[in-house]
Each structure stands twice: as structure tokens, then as C-alpha cells.
Design brief:
Two copies of one chain form a homodimer.
Chain A: H1 18-38, H2 41-48, H3 52-58, H4 62-77, H5 86-103, H6 105-117, H7 121-130, H8 132-144, H9 154-172, H10 178-194
Chain A binds a DNA duplex (30 and 30 nucleotides) through helix 2 and helix 3.
DNA sequence: AGCATTACGAGGCATCGTGTCTTGATAATC
DNA sequence: GATTATCAAGACACGATGCCTCGTAATGCT
């Protein structure tokens, strides 16, 4: 349980860690009930039954709370069961990624954070440091790499695999279809397996 | 010069189109001077030497103004000169896209809009309707398609080409390197040319 | 030219969110 | 049982929003 950023959380020890947990639960609930835009620091405090100063004591922005509230869920949802065939492995991951970004509360939170990151440097650092999608993508790629001799280095390969999925959702809100995901993995895996075509 | 959304801009015709232009110029300037986050409707009006009501008369949100102010610049910057070889054509486009998203004022505006779109449905519709990146990408792909027999249908192909570039910038703020862009185009073009590897 | 219409700049207004500060109650430590 | 410090609650100043009202000036129609 990191103390988040904000410096140390105060000299005295927290009388109740439960205040932190109440806030995180409140944020979880409010996110699905009213969405990110309608969430306010004041509203979070009231919903959590907590003083406003208590919220500010541990987090300095909505983004920090949201990230802490959704990180573990996100990591769990993007950690797909390995499949025997590489193509199935990649496809299962991309489908999980799509579900995450379009329907999961944690995914919606992540998209909101990604949005804030575009005009707030501090949030950008938070998102980059968490790197939820990059980490999950790399895990899958590590399993597939032995079967794909021509796969580029991790950063580019991860971008090639997940980038199209992420970008389309961020730009339009509508994900690639399962058929498109299948075509994408097939083409990419083919290129990674076959080697450069000069 | 479209009248933007907002319904009709009012029954009477604009006494001076110059008010609109002043606002658009002010937004352009303020975007580079203070960034999107610091921009306010009040500030825009004052900077443009215009009453606040005048701003609200023609645009209902900051996002609408920003989109109108940067659309033509964006389209121009993403319209790259065709190259003889398909690989060069794709690479030149991706480099232009990278420059656009990381250094151009219009590109920064577009990223800010993309950010807002993640928690504002109305903005999402605006961005989707404009579809600046998708349009530019499709134009390039149309030139390359004759040389790439196995290229998927336009929506997927566009996502495969531009998605990784866009996603990495949105997620980290740091673009793919020129070398990575070159590797990406080479691999993609190879896969599109060679056909499915089953 | 003259009149009605309507946008215009300026700024007041209520409302809301933010982040800080204060208060009185409550729990932990000695 | 006294001291200390956290806590919930809410007051506060500030800034942004979007609406509304002025008096003014430009436009369209006759």
C-alpha cells in the first residue's frame, strides 16, 4: 500500500486506514453510477462519509484516487489465461483489452485518466508510471516471442499489437470487431513469424 | 466555413464575421501560449476583445471552438506529398503524424480534444465526426493499396498503420523513434504485400 | 434616407467546484 | 484521567461557468 505521492501522509499515524478504503470504495461506486466527469472531490468525500481534508491528506487530485482505485482491477482483468497456440493467446488478450476499455469500470477509469493526461502533465506521469496496458501486453508478448522469430523489440511489438485496438477505442469509442481482432492477430503473427519480407 | 454545431447560429446574420475570426485567432494563440488546460471561455472572450455572449452564441463549448480552430491546419499538416515507393509514402505519413501530435499546435489541440472525448460524449461525437487522423490515413492507404494485395479493409488497415503511433503518444507522450517507425512500416507493408502466412 | 431588427461589448449575477482553514467531537497514548 | 492528534463537518475566498441585461452600432428592408 503505497502512500501515493503527496509527500508523507502526515506525522501522526492514521487513526483509521478505513478512511482511505472508504474513499476508494466510494470512487469505485461513483464511477459506475455517475461517471468520471460528474465526480467531484466534494462528492467523493460526502459519499465516503469523510471530511474533505481527509481526502486531500492522502491524494492531491481526482486522478490519483482513480488510479489507485482501479489499478489492481485493471491488472487482474488484463491478465489473461495463457493459451496453447500463440494466435489464440494474442486474440484472447486483445479481446480482454477491448472488454476492459469499453465495459469495465476500471477500464473507463483508465480512459478518463488517459484523457486527463493529454492536458495535465502530472497525470501523464502517473499514467505512464502505472503503464497498465504496456505491462499486460508485454506479458503476453513474452509468451509468444519464442514462436515469433521476427517479432520486433518489446516496445514496438507491444505498440503494434495493442496500439490499433487502443487508438480506435479512444478515437471513436467503438472497438474493433472480433473479426477485425482476429484478422489483426493473424496478420501480425504472420509477419512476426515469417521474418522481414525485404 | 460551417456554422459548427450548436443548432443554427441565430436567425439574424452576423454583423461581422470578424468576431468569429477574432475568437478563432485568440484560441490559436492562447493554445500555444498557455495550453489547453489554462484556457477559459472568459479568457478567450477577453483575449479576442469580444463579449462572452458572443462566444456562446456560436460555440457551446471550448471543444467546439478548438476543433474549428485547428481542423484545417490539421488536415493540411497530415496531407503529405505522395512518394514513389509505398514504403516511403507510409513512412513519410507516419513521421508527419508524429510531428503533428507532438509538436504542432493543431496536434496538441487534437490531443486535448481526444482527452475530453474520454469523459464527454458530446466531444466524442465531434471528434469522431471530424475523424482527422482516420481521413488522412485512408488517403495514404488508398495510394498504397494497389501495391499491397493482402491489405485488410480500410478501417482495420488504418488502425494497423496509425494506431501504434497514436496510442504510444497518447499513453506516454513520447513518440516512436524514426527507426521504430521505419521498422513498423516495413513489417506492415511486408505483411500486406505477402498475403496471409497461415 | 429612415426605421425596425439584431448582433455586439461590457459586465452583473447565481451556481458550482476547488483547496484551505477552523471548530468541536472522538479516539489513541501516557 | 490528562494530553495529543486525527477526524467529520462546514465556512471561506477564489475562479470558471452560463445566463441575462444594458446601451450601442451595424445591418436589412422599404
Amino acid at each position: 500500500m503505497s502512500r501515493t505521492a503527496h509527500g508523507q501522509p502526515a506525522p501522526g499515524r492514521p487513526r483509521s486506514e478505513s478512511a482511505r478504503i472508504a474513499v476508494l470504495h466510494a470512487v469505485d461506486d461513483m464511477l459506475v453510477e455517475q461517471g468520471y466527469a460528474a465526480m467531484t472531490m466534494k462528492g467523493i468525500a460526502e459519499r465516503a462519509g469523510v471530511g474533505r481534508q481527509t481526502v486531500y491528506r492522502w491524494w492531491s487530485t481526482k486522478a490519483e484516487i482513480l488510479l489507485e482505485a482501479s489499478t489492481s482491477d485493471a491488472a487482474h482483468e488484463l491478465d489473461v489465461e495463457p493459451r496453447a497456440r500463440p494466435a489464440d493467446d494474442l486474440l484472447a488478450f486483445l479481446e480482454a483489452l477491448t472488454t476492459f476499455l469499453t465495459t469495465s469500470p476500471a477500464g473507463l477509469a483508465y480512459r478518463a485518466l488517459l484523457g486527463e493526461a493529454q492536458h495535465d502533465t502530472a497525470v501523464r506521469e502517473l499514467v505512464r508510471a502505472a503503464d497498465l496496458i504496456g505491462t499486460a501486453t508485454s506479458a503476453v508478448l513474452a509468451r509468444v516471442r519464442p514462436h515469433a522469430a521476427a517479432m520486433p523489440a518489446p516496445p514496438l511489438a507491444a505498440a503494434q499489437l495493442a496500439g490499433p485496438v487502443v487508438a480506435v477505442i479512444l478515437e471513436t469509442g467503438v472497438p474493433l470487431t472480433p473479426a477485425q481482432l482476429a484478422d489483426h492477430t493473424r496478420l501480425l503473427l504472420g509477419a512476426w513469424t515469417a521474418g522481414p519480407q525485404r
